[in-house]
Specification:
326 residues; Neuraminidase; 5-stranded mixed sheet; 39% strand
């Protein structure tokens, strides 16, 4: 009963926009990333002494990013991929995902990246609704997730559409809590708790599930579109979601998913020279620290207005007063 109340409060809170209009984040630097074999940057995380990235086109590697003020270089760290566990997804969706992976590359479709205080990297697979952990030595293993995770998500209206599955992951520094973001139609947040070597839905996995449609920024037209999450990050005991339709980052309550405040990056993303030939947002990766935010762009092989076709990482300054400012 308590969990049901929390979920209801989360749904109500999430339906209410932040009290103030989103403040625009200030761009500090922009970096084109060279060396990502398949391109399609889909996750970012700061682990140890470096920023790491993952691509949804590569099943056997992470990328360590390095460079100065301009172009960055991606250095691949390969790992041996174990066979994925049973996902609990319907046969038809699994087959459609398999065919898609054969055509475009990336059978796992890794769509998010997080890191704990020990340097373990966590990758969420959209294709298999699973989480792969890669330790600092490069050994990979799939986490033991509860069989009820996918069932609860689907019962709440999430994970029902092809290519609209788990899109983001956040793990707290102690690796005791893990949040997964369902992308769209319906978008939502789920939480798991670790007990020894396995993960559990403590009173239920679903924090929030949101449907409906929203208008994009005026520069992208007036056609209502289903909002989505493309990344989730954990910082200073708060969750932060990356919301590409509105081109914003929102701070949320970890226990309910309720939104507290949002910040916009629309001025940067939709500036004339950075525009892609699509009406959908292209921001896919998010990592926060006290000084600012890293946002990664998955251009999906598209060329933007200035001719750049490589993946992009933006560095934004933290807002005045920090990420936990009221």
């Amino acid at each position: 009963m308590i969990r049901r109340c929390l979920v209801l409060l989360g749904l109500l809170g999430a339906a209410v926009p932040a009290s103030a209009a989103p403040v625009e984040l200030q761009l500090v630097s922009e970096h084109a990333v060279a060396g990502m074999t398949g391109g399609n940057l889909s996750g970012l995380a700061w682990c140890g002494d470096a920023l790491w990235a993952v691509s949804d086109r590569d099943d056997d590697r992470l990328y360590r990013l390095s460079g100065g003020a301009g172009e960055w270089q991606a250095e691949a760290e390969r790992f041996e991929l174990p066979p994925p566990p049973a996902s609990g997804l319907p046969w038809g969706m699994r087959m459609r995902t398999w065919v898609s992976g054969q055509l475009r590359g990336g059978q796992m479709d890794f769509e998010g990246l997080s890191c704990d205080s020990l340097g373990n990297r966590y990758l969420v697979s959209e294709a298999h609704a699973g989480v792969l952990r890669v330790n600092p030595a490069g050994t990979a293993e799939w986490l033991h997730l509860p069989s009820s995770l996918v069932r609860q998500a689907r019962a709440s209206g999430m994970l029902l559409h092809f290519n609209a599955m788990f899109e983001g992951i956040a793990v707290d520094p102690a690796a005791e809590r893990m949040w997964l973001a369902a992308e769209r139609e319906r978008r939502g947040l789920l939480v798991l708790h670790r007990r020894q070597n396995s993960w559990h839905c403590t009173g239920g996995c679903v924090l929030l599930s949101e449907g409906g449609q929203e208008l994009p920024p005026p520069a992208l037209g007036q056609q209502p579109t289903a909002p989505g999450f493309t990344a989730v990050a954990f910082h200073q005991d708060k969750l932060f979601t990356l919301e590409p339709l509105a081109h914003q980052v929102c701070r949320r309550v970890p226990a309910t998913g309720a939104v507290e405040r949002c910040w916009s990056f629309v001025a940067t993303a939709l500036s004339e020279e950075r525009r892609y030939p699509t009406r959908f947002g292209t921001a896919e990766a998010l990592w926060l620290d006290a000084e600012g935010a890293w946002i990664g762009v998955d251009n999906n092989d598209m060329r933007r207005a200035d001719g750049e076709q490589r993946p992009i990482v933006w560095r934004f300054a933290a807002p005045a007063g920090g990420w936990n400012a009221p």
